[in-house]
């Protein structure tokens, strides 16, 4: 959220320690803030106008988001997972989803670690 009201203080502190404080002004606007330059998804992955975007404040996509509500409302029970930080964000999301009863499949060539 642009107000950073969903940003945990420890995550803000960690980002500041590496010189990329979330919400601070940078060459691409405020780092990791919706609506700022550099936040947008690349054209090849841009959502359709009817598709939702989930801004996640934590490591997993279910924590402090409405992802579960959106999935259940749309009758989704199986998830294909991919992402950049396989060892943190993707695994956390997969575990959160599994704990909630979703069937999960991680796309091995759709993940990477940093």
Task: Describe the structure concisely for a colleague.
With 114 residues, the protein is an alpha+beta fold.
How are the SSEs placed, and which strands pair?
Layout: H1 9-17, E1 25-26, E2 29-30, H2 67-73, E3 78-83, H3 86-99, E4 103-111
Parallel strand pairs: 3-4
Antiparallel strand pairs: 1-2
Unreliable stretches (pLDDT < 50, length at least 5) are none
Major beta sheet summary = 2 strands, antiparallel
Which band does the percent of strand residues land in?
15-25%
Radius of gyration: 15 Å
Your description of this structure?
With 114 residues, the protein is of the alpha+beta class. The protein is 26% helix and 17% strand. The strands form two sheets. A two-stranded antiparallel sheet has the order 1-2. Strands 3-4 form a two-stranded parallel sheet. The two termini are 24 Å apart. The model has no long low-confidence stretch (mean pLDDT 88).
């Amino acid at each position: 959220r642009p107000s950073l009201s969903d940003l945990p203080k420890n995550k803000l502190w960690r980002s500041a320690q590496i010189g990329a404080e979330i919400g601070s002004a940078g060459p691409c606007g405020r780092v990791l803030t919706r609506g700022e330059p550099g936040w947008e998804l690349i054209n090849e992955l841009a959502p359709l106008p009817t598709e939702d975007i989930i801004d996640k404040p934590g490591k997993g996509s279910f924590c402090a988001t409405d992802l579960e509500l959106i999935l259940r409302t749309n009758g989704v029970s199986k998830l294909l997972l991919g992402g950049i930080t396989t060892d943190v964000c993707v695994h956390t999301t997969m575990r959160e989803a599994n704990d909630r009863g979703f069937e999960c499949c991680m796309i091995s060539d759709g993940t990477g670690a940093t």
